């Protein structure tokens, strides 16, 4: 495995990134390769996301967007390269020139600092809305159920679903379910939020309510990476727009540049289809 | 649609129909009536047929030896189900694990124990002393009495079926559920216990209820190795008194009663695990 210079050698715990000069990126993806069998899905991806910034990833279906997002919380292992979040290597510990995969317990702990919102919500259907949100802080962070429940109710209020605490997910609309899923991710107070096409499974009239919640988070300075086809959302909220195609980042920059004056033919072709 | 019905429906535009008259279901009523008459005749013939000797049924229904047999049938069924499903869950986990050795062994177990008739297996364990005269320094016949043989044989048989039921249940849980739980940092145990198993139970409970009722009656096979379960205890009586039919009725009625209770229980268990699913509400 080739390991380009990694940020935090040794145990891989968070170094004080904010104190020394220009802040270290919240997310640092370096030369990441990933294959499924003989299919190479990520062909050397480099990406930096600064704390408090919103990065929107665009790209055609099958270009590796979900896979990239999933490597960032180690739902997929990388074959080459490395990823760090908030100063810690994701899934690995560096010792000398080798990366050793962490124990499951340590990986799970890292994941609690990274919220993930799925295209299909993946709420737990047998638990009430409140229990969906309370589960992880109680069982993974060992917080007291009472405190977590109070916090969960505040989160539900924040996503506009205070009255749905005792409903089961199937009794909610898709837009409401996705807002619960966002509240569930927020309950862990993550340093980073990852969204994989959060509105793609929704009826058109429900897209707005979910995007509004995400915009709200963006304005409060939450660091996030959002895979979406909503160009309007990208233009309004993104600090950086990244265009991916065929396992590579083809082009990235400010929304005005990438969306209005794309340099690459493939970006232009893609945008002409979705705009 | 004929023009006849059309004209009938076409009431004046402004008149809202005052009520809806459902179509007559003459056929259904006739069929129901016929079935009820036949059922009445059957019940009447059973109740009045002297040969059933209902008074004898009454005499033995709550006799001490029958109740002892019933007790054994009940606890044996419970124990075999519990052990069978515990072993079955392990086998299912083995079958679904990433470890090829565990996968192969689990598969082999299910293959072997589903292939072997339970009767053959019981007789085999009953005669295991012929293969291994002593186990752990004790004479095998002393170690493995008929009841122990029954527990071992029935459990091993049950586990093979339970493994498939549990495996099917686990596979029915959406892969996204496990990913969501992983992404939230839930431990392996917590994912299994709190997320996967409760959802798997929705597909496990109906076949498990079937298996439970099957096992309840299936335990009667151990009468061949002279374990005094419900069936064997009525057999002991009728071998003495020759009142075969009424005593078989005693056993049958008990099996029916217990099965009914279990079916009611299954309804509530299904409802419990169905919470949150649209179908259950
Ligand atoms: N677990 C997997 N096993 C095999 N192939 C996969 C797997 N996940 C994704 N792929 C393949 O990787 C490619 C990229 O997928 P994905 O990252 O989901 O793309 P996108 O999210 O941009 O549509 C696709 O060709 C997809 O079929
Ligand atoms: Mg995708």
UniProtKB/TrEMBL annotation, chain B:
Q: Which UniProt keywords apply?
A: Amino-acid transport, Cell membrane, Membrane, Transmembrane, Transmembrane helix, Transport
Q: Which residue ranges does UniProt annotate as crossing the membrane?
A: 29-47, 67-92, 104-126, 211-232, 244-269
Identify its membrane topology class.
Multi-pass membrane protein
Full protein name:
Amino acid ABC transporter permease
Q: Which family does it belong to?
A: Belongs to the binding-protein-dependent transport system permease family.
- Which domain of life does this protein belong to? Bacteria
Supply the PANTHER family for this chain.
L-CYSTINE TRANSPORT SYSTEM PERMEASE PROTEIN TCYL (PTHR30614:SF0), MEMBRANE COMPONENT OF AMINO ACID ABC TRANSPORTER (PTHR30614)
A GO BP entry: amino acid transport
Task: Name the species this protein comes from.
Answer: Streptomyces dioscori
Compartments (UniProt record): Cell membrane
Cellular compartments per GO CC: ATP-binding cassette (ABC) transporter complex
Please list the residue ranges annotated as the ABC transmembrane type-1 domain: 70-266
**Molecular function as annotated in GO:** transmembrane transporter activity
Question: Which Pfam family, an example, fits this chain?
Answer: BPD_transp_1
Query: InterPro entries from the entry?
Result: AA_ABC_transptr_permease_3TM, ArtM/GltK/GlnP/TcyL/YhdX-like, MetI-like, MetI-like_sf
């Amino acid at each position: 495995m080739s390991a380009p210079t990694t940020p935090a050698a040794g145990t891989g715990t968070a170094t004080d990134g904010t104190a020394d000069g220009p802040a270290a990126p919240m997310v640092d993806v370096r030369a990441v390769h990933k294959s499924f069998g003989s299919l190479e899905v990520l062909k050397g991806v480099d990406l930096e996301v600064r704390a408090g910034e919103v990065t929107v990833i665009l790209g055609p279906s099958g270009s590796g967007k979900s896979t990239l997002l999933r490597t960032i919380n180690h739902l997929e292992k990388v074959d080459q390269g490395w990823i760090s979040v908030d100063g810690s290597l994701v899934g690995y510990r560096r010792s000398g020139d080798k990366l050793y995969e962490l124990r499951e317990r340590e990986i799970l702990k890292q994941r609690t600092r990274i919220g993930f919102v799925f295209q299909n919500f993946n709420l737990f259907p047998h638990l009430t809305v409140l229990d969906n949100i309370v589960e992880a802080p109680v069982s993974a962070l060992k917080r007291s159920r009472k405190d977590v429940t109070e916090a969960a109710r505040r989160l539900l209020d924040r996503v506009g679903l205070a009255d749905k605490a005792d409903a089961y997910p199937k009794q909610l609309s898709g837009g409401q379910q996705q807002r619960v899923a966002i509240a569930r991710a927020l309950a862990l107070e993550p340093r980073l939020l990852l969204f994989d096409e959060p509105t793609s499974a929704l009826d058109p009239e429900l897209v707005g309510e979910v995007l509004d919640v995400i915009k709200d988070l963006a304005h409060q300075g939450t660091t996030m990476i959002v895979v979406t086809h909503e160009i309007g959302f990208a233009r309004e909220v993104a600090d950086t727009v990244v265009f991916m195609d065929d396992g590579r980042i083809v082009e990235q920059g400010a929304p005005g540049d990438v969306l209005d004056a794309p340099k690459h033919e493939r970006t232009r072709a893609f945008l002409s289809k979705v705009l | 649609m004929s023009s006849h019905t059309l004209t009938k429906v076409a009431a004046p535009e402004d008149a809202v129909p005052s009520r809806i008259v459902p179509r007559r279901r003459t056929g259904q009523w006739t069929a129901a009536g016929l079935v009820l008459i036949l059922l009445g005749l059957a019940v009447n013939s059973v109740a009045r047929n002297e040969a059933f000797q209902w008074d004898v049924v009454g005499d033995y229904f709550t006799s001490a030896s029958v109740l002892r047999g019933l007790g054994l049938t009940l606890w044996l069924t419970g124990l075999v189900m519990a052990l069978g499903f515990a072993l079955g869950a392990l086998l299912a986990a083995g079958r679904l694990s990433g470890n090829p050795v565990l996968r192969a062994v689990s598969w082999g177990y299910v293959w072997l124990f589903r292939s072997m008739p339970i009767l053959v297996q019981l007789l085999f364990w009953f005669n295991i002393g012929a293969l291994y005269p002593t186990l752990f320094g004790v004479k095998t016949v002393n170690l493995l009495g008929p009841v122990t043989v029954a527990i071992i044989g029935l459990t091993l048989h049950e586990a093979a079926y339970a493994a498939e039921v549990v495996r099917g249940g686990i596979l029915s849980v959406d892969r996204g559920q496990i990913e969501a739980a992983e992404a939230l940092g839930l431990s392996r145990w917590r994912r299994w216990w709190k997320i996967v198993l409760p959802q798997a139970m929705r597909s496990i409970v109906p076949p498990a209820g079937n298996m439970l009722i099957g096992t309840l009656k299936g335990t009667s096979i151990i009468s061949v190795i002279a374990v005094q379960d419900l069936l064997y205890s009525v057999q002991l009586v009728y071998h003495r008194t020759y009142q075969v039919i009424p005593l078989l009725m005693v056993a049958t009625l008990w099996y029916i009663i217990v099965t009914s209770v279990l079916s009611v229980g299954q309804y509530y268990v299904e409802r419990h695990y169905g919470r949150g699913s649209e179908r259950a509400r």
